[in-house]
Specification:
Low-confidence stretches: none
Strand content: under 5%
Number of helices: 6
Number of domains: 1
Number of strands: 0
Mean pLDDT: 93
Structural class: mainly alpha
Radius of gyration: 16 Å
Length: 130
């Protein structure tokens, strides 16, 4: 399996993880505020509403990973290490930039779908590092 293939698999797993977290946050939004009227309204909320702001670091990491995958340059093990480092920073308690992400994530981390999606991307990271 090439580095690109490994990163594509990781990107897909992170997308699923993001989707699960987003769905939990959406349900919470609808309870706190109002039902979301349309897919466009949902998109606008995700992009602009403070309720979804905590997910933006993960969204940004995923966008960067997709850019790396789409680059025409050869990919190396360093790209995998960089992705691992970025994910480690996102979850590191000493990295203050992502404290809001970790705080909000901690509210959802015990849901079975979140656990499953997280276990998938973590397993892929482990596979790529070994």
């Amino acid at each position: 399996m090439t580095v690109r293939d490994q990163l594509i698999d990781l990107s897909k797993a992170l997308r699923q993880y993001h989707s699960v977290l987003l769905e939990h946050s959406k349900r919470e939004y609808e309870v706190k505020f109002e039902p979301i009227s349309s897919p466009f309204a949902y998109f606008q909320l995700v992009v602009n509403h403070p309720h979804f702001q905590w997910l933006r670091p993960l969204s940004g990491l995923m966008a960067t990973l997709d850019e790396v995958i789409d680059a025409k340059t050869p990919l190396t093990e360093q790209n995998i290490m960089d992705t691992h480092k970025a994910l480690a920073m996102l979850f590191s308690p000493v990295e203050t930039s992502f404290a809001e992400f970790r705080k909000e994530y901690s509210r959802f981390k015990d849901f079975s779908d979140v656990k499953f999606a997280e276990a998938r991307w973590r397993a892929l990271i482990e596979e790529t590092l070994n």
